[in-house]
């Protein structure tokens, strides 16, 4: 008898990942947050500001919601610069097919950031330092997509 394994169909999951950048120093830096044990997946991994896209909410709008929830920054304290193309990631273990909607934001008030329970640590890093962090899957690809994304005038 054959022992063919049929895996369950993957759940389509749309998420937003926002890269918050500051330009008040000699180099552009982006914010990374370290995920807490209380989030659903990828504990202790570094990520941008991210979350599930809720039903009937556009990814653009969800990006602002997540920024407000996870950093305390209001809409007038950030400016959307770019909207990247979707980056896909299949995670068999979680049974999900992620569609990551990446965004690049400029932070007008970086000193105002107060992370919530979803993060245990935060760091401003230069983008080329990303490789030195254990990140959520495809974070670098999402960042590149956001960087090369559609310019939001």
Automatic annotation (TrEMBL):
<dbReference type="InterPro" id="IPR000086">
    <property type="entry name" value="NUDIX_hydrolase_dom"/>
</dbReference>
<dbReference type="Pfam" id="PF00293">
    <property type="entry name" value="NUDIX"/>
</dbReference>
<feature type="domain" description="Nudix hydrolase">
    <location>
        <begin position="11"/>
        <end position="148"/>
    </location>
</feature>
<comment type="similarity">
    <text>Belongs to the Nudix hydrolase family.</text>
</comment>
<protein>
    <recommendedName>
        <fullName>Nudix hydrolase domain-containing protein</fullName>
    </recommendedName>
</protein>
<dbReference type="InterPro" id="IPR015797">
    <property type="entry name" value="NUDIX_hydrolase-like_dom_sf"/>
</dbReference>
